Amino acid sequence: GATRSEVHGLSGDKTVGWFDIGGVRKGFLHQGNSYSTGFTTLEFPGASSTEARGVDGNYVVGNAVIGGVQYGFSYDILTGGYTPYRATGNLDTYFNDINDGMIVGTATSGGQNIPFLMQNGQYEFFSFQGNPSLSASGSSYDNGILAGSYATSTGETLGYYANVPE
Predict the structure, then answer these.
(1) β-pair partners for 20
(2) Residue 67 in 3-state DSSP?
(3) d(C-alpha 16, C-alpha 68), whole Å
(4) pTM of the predicted structure, to 2 decimals
(5) Which residues, 6 or more positions from 94, have their beta carbon under 8 angstroms from its beta carbon?
C-alpha cells in the first residue's frame, strides 16, 4: 500500500529506510535474507513522520518530526527503545548515518546547514575555512573520514571528504 519507499542504510543483513503510506512517512528495518519477511515498521512515538537513515550493529538512526520540530533519533533493535536528540542550541537535527558508534548528521539554523559527528551525546560541528556561511551537510562517516556536500558561494553543490582526528 506504500506510494513511495527509499532504502538509506545497510549493515550485514540489516537494511533501513522509509515508506510513505497515506501521506505519512514511516521507517522500516529489514533483517535477514528473505525479502518477503523480516520487516519491522519504525514509528517514533508521537511523531508525525519517521525516517530510518542508518544502521550499525543493533542501532538504527533516523529522523522524526515531533510537534512540528525536527529531531534525530536512535532506535535500539534489542530493546525496541527510541531516544530523541536535538543538536546543541536546539537546532533542527537530522541523523543521516551511523558507523563505529559515530552518528553523522546535519543541524539546521536559519536555513544554514552545519555538518556534525555525534558520539555519546557530544556534538562536533564542522565548518569550511574561509567561508563559514556555506551551507553543508554530513552524509557518511567511516575510519576517520566524514563525507557530505556543501553549497558554494556561486550556488554549486559539491561533495567533500574531511579527515576527522580520532
Answers:
(1) 4, 25
(2) coil
(3) 23
(4) 0.89
(5) 63, 70, 72, 105, 106, 107, 108, 137
Q: What is the C-alpha to C-alpha distance for residues 38 and 36, in angstroms, rounded to an integer? A: 7
Please name the residue that has the C-alpha cell 543521516: 96
DSSP secondary structure string for all residues of 71-123 = EEEEEETTTTEEEEE-BTTTBEEEEEEEETTEEEEEEEETTEEEEEEEETTEE
Which DSSP letter does residue 32 get? S
CB 28 within 8 A of CB 14: no
**Ranges 68-82, 94-108, 113-127, 129-143: which has the least confidence:** 129-143
Residue 129 makes CB contacts below 8 A (sequence gap 6+) with none
100: Cα within 13 Å, side-chain hemisphere: 9
- Give the Cβ contact number of residue 144 at 10 Å: 12
Length of the chain: 166
Average pLDDT of the residues in 82-100: 92
